[in-house]
Design a protein that fits this description.
The chain is an alpha/beta fold and 561 residues long. The chain has eleven helices and 24 strands. The longest helix has 38 residues.
């Protein structure tokens, strides 16, 4: 009997000791959550693990839109938006505004550290409007001292220590002003940072990480409750032009600063693919590119052995007259599964011309479908990508087309030049033909049109699956590190809404993906000629509404959870 009692007591003690660590760990976790909640009083938006908590204490998904505020003009534009803009956006379903600022709104280079009350009064007015319509404001430093970052023209922020000191001091002044204002949800410390390229990518990134840490510490001294919105490193630039950054290095694990602060929201931007969202735009380097969403165009592929062969159409006469050509049929093979139309011009002192280039897909039952058609009538080179061994040669649109309209002109190439068109996947049982017209003004230019082909794996087409693959890596980062993630910018240029290119479909799919992974998001932008919901000149009050964009935003925001 005593032995049985001893065994029962031993078993009881064993059970207690077995569950004690679990009890203690639960208590410690609860204490940590309690400590964290004490640091973030109710009424302020803040991070809690991978969640964002709203001013009501409930989980929040940020559904915002950008006020660009004409930051490029270096002065406040009072016509960019009005109080009615907040009312309109609130009724559409937006809950916040990402509010772009330029340091010039608050400080002149001739008088550093002396802040203009006019800038703060204007910001005060916007905070008041946001509160009135139940919205929040995220203040974003879009143009810091030293220059706008995204295009790589703001190197003086990194090369002049005084510019960094001024940026930190301005942020502290802003934080002091709004530290007690719950409608200011947080501070976007630096938009799309673009640093000088140093010996290694790690050293390059450290420039941004160190500056971010300095800003965060000073802001936190003045403003203990607002969230810090911290972006991933955008790019690196070799000032001497001798080398390029390792773009494979730019993944979330490497590019996000590791901020020692409990209230950080990690931010990324999505304009994938750039050739679609920024299509047909000179300032973006996409002049001549037009794309439709979704499409069978390949945006990513891994090639096994490069381009392994080509199928060339019949030779073209060189007597200066337009000549029709048509290639033989190309079919899927074990040796290749991807193809692209290519326009070829031999080295020449003259020029080669191409017009009405057509890629035709023929189904097993003989039905024909035009995959691509290039007539060059819109005055651009339609997304063709030139290559020559020595880099010479120019693609241009000439008005010397076969029907008196546009055509492609290749000239100035000292070596043979190939202009490659959109890639596409070959389907089993289908045939492909390239056809069109060409001519030359000298006998030695020898224009030709080909279907180039290659073997590739992991082919990704421009569709929703591709967008999800681009966005999910940030959702994975959020999950791994237990931090909230925020898509601070996404959008499509006005060209993407023309002629059935379906910019609205792209926007719709991006929002769906964000909702799927509970990623907060912010559309770029409310009022500007390129990306605006209102696309009229932003020197005037908003008037020219993109109705297609307005409809998809309104529909999606109403359905959002």
């Amino acid at each position: 009997m005593k032995k049985k009692k001893f065994l029962r007591r031993f078993s009881l003690f064993s059970l207690i000791f077995a569950v004690l660590p679990l009890i203690l760990s639960v208590c410690v976790f609860a204490a940590k959550k309690s400590d964290k909640s004490k640091d973030q009083p109710s009424g302020f938006v803040h991070a809690d693990g991978k969640d964002i908590i709203g001013i009501d204490g409930e989980k929040l998904v940020i559904k915002g839109i950008a006020f660009g505020n004409s930051v490029w003009s270096n002065k406040i534009n009072y016509n960019h938006h009005t109080e009615d803009s907040y009312k309109e956006l609130s009724e559409m379903g937006f809950n916040s505004v990402r509010f772009y600022i330029n340091y010039c709104f608050f400080e002149d280079d001739a008088a550093p550290y002396k802040y203009k009350e006019s800038g703060f009064k204007w910001l005060d007015k916007n905070v008041k409007w946001a509160k009135k319509y139940g919205m929040g404001i995220i203040i974003n430093m879009h143009c810091p001292q030293g220059g706008y970052q995204s295009a790589g023209n703001g190197m003086e922020l990194w090369n002049d220590a005084e510019n960094q000191n001024r940026l930190i001091a301005l942020w502290k002044a802003i934080a002091e002003r709004y530290s007690g204002e719950p409608a200011v949800w947080g501070y976007g410390l630096l938009n799309e940072p673009y640093v000088p390229l140093l010996d290694t990518m790690e050293k390059s990134a450290e420039q941004y990480f160190e500056l971010t840490d300095r800003i965060a510490k000073e802001v936190r001294k003045a403003s203990p409750h607002q969230a810090l919105f911290v972006e991933c490193l955008c790019n690196a630039k070799d000032i001497n032009g001798e080398k390029v950054p390792d773009y494979d290095w730019f993944v979330p694990e490497n590019t996000f600063p590791k901020i020692n602060d409990q209230n950080v929201i990690y931010e990324f931007h999505c304009y994938s693919p750039f050739s679609f969202t920024h299509q047909g735009t000179q300032w973006a380097g996409t002049e001549g590119i037009t794309m439709t969403y979704p499409s069978e165009q390949i945006v990513s592929a891994e090639y096994e052995n490069g381009w392994v062969g080509c199928l060339t159409a019949d030779s073209v006469n060189t007597d200066g007259e337009w000549t029709y050509f048509e290639s033989r049929k190309l079919q899927l093979s074990n040796n290749y599964n991807i193809a692209s139309a290519a326009l070829y011009a031999h080295e020449s002192e003259g020029a080669a011309y191409f017009d009405d280039i057509t890629v035709t897909e023929i189904s097993p039952n003989g039905k024909k479908k035009t995959l691509y058609f290039y007539d060059f009538n819109e005055g651009n080179v339609m997304g063709l990508y030139p290559w020559s061994p020595d880099g010479t040669g120019v693609l241009a649109v000439s008005d010397n087309g076969r029907n008196g309209s546009g055509c492609l002109k290749i000239s100035g190439n000292r070596t043979a030049l190939t202009a490659s068109a959109d890639k596409f996947i070959l389907k089993n049982g289908y045939y492909y033909v390239v056809s069109g017209y060409a001519k030359s003004d000298t006998a030695d230019s020898k224009p030709a049109v080909r279907l180039d082909y290659a073997k590739a794996s992991s082919c990704i087409m421009l569709d929703k699956d591709y967008l999800e693959s681009e966005i999910k890596i940030y959702a994975d980062y959020s999950e791994k590190h237990n931090v909230p993630i925020y898509m601070g910018e996404f959008g499509v240029i006005s060209e993407g809404f023309k002629k059935g290119r379906n910019g609205a479909g792209w926007v719709s799919d991006v929002i769906d993906i964000c909702e799927q992974y509970r990623i907060s998001y912010n559309y770029h932008t409310y009022h500007e000629t390129s990306f605006g919901l209102y696309a009229n000149n932003d020197a005037e009050l908003p008037s020219e509404l993109n109705k297609e964009l307005e409809k998809v935003l309104r529909d999606k925001l109403k359905r959002a959870k």
